[in-house]
Amino acid sequence: MEKRVLFRSRWLPWVLLAPQVSVIAVFFFWPAGQAMLQSFQLQDAFGLSTQWVGFDNFRDLFTDSAYLNSFKITALFSAMVAALGIGLSLMLAVFADRIIRGALFYKTFLIVPYAVAPAVAGVLWLFMFSPTLGVVAYALRSLGVDWNSLLNTGDAVALIVMAAVWKQISYNFLFFMAGLQSIPKSLIEAAAIDGAHPWRRFWSIQFPLLSPTTFFLLVINMVYAFFDTFAIIDATTRGGPGQDTMILVYKVYNDGFKNGDLGGSAAQSVVLMAIVIALTVVQFRYVEKKVQY
Length: 293
Fold this sequence. Notes:
mainly alpha, globular, 13 helices, two-stranded antiparallel ribbon
């Protein structure tokens, strides 16, 4: 039977929802509305004078080759972060789930990166791969690899991807670990008795049952790659070399706060918000059909 909660007062549900609705309105709808308004305006760097320009800011964006290039960079970066982050986390969760002795130590060790702030994570990886001071860069040079994330685009992209994946891997690991532990052990044992090897048991039993968790993490990791990696990029490459690691969210900051183009920056934030909403809708509309609940 379907159970429903009935309130005696018609106003009580709204009162209970009021705190959360207020937070969403203040920290999302109000800034989003301000950004949409500013995207149709031309302002000076100090916000003292404003001129209504309509869609001119959006026209300038889509005729700017640097902005169009940031789309390619963001697509490549977000796809690599989501794929590598989810794949490595799932592998680590499967291995950790099989450990019997010292399991608590391994699980705690894998959760540690989640406690590190994104800016700190960026600085940590920057120092490790610094061309002059980094121990990892020194080891790579001893192997004949000329690593220089300050000059080489490929090295810079690899650096921010590794830092972003390392920062997010603990979050993904927690959810995959919880999902694996919720799978009845009797299913795994029955498959083992039937002669299924570990890879077959994972692919036929565990992975399909993890599809809701995988779908959830796919959405979260895409949003993370679009927004929460700002501090990592600011601490490591700052969009360089040139603008080869200038993803969309960092270009909003660079054009608005460094170059003083407040109207263009607001237009970029509106486009970025529309892209993320569209990606989320597509994921829930099409990808979720393959999820087995």
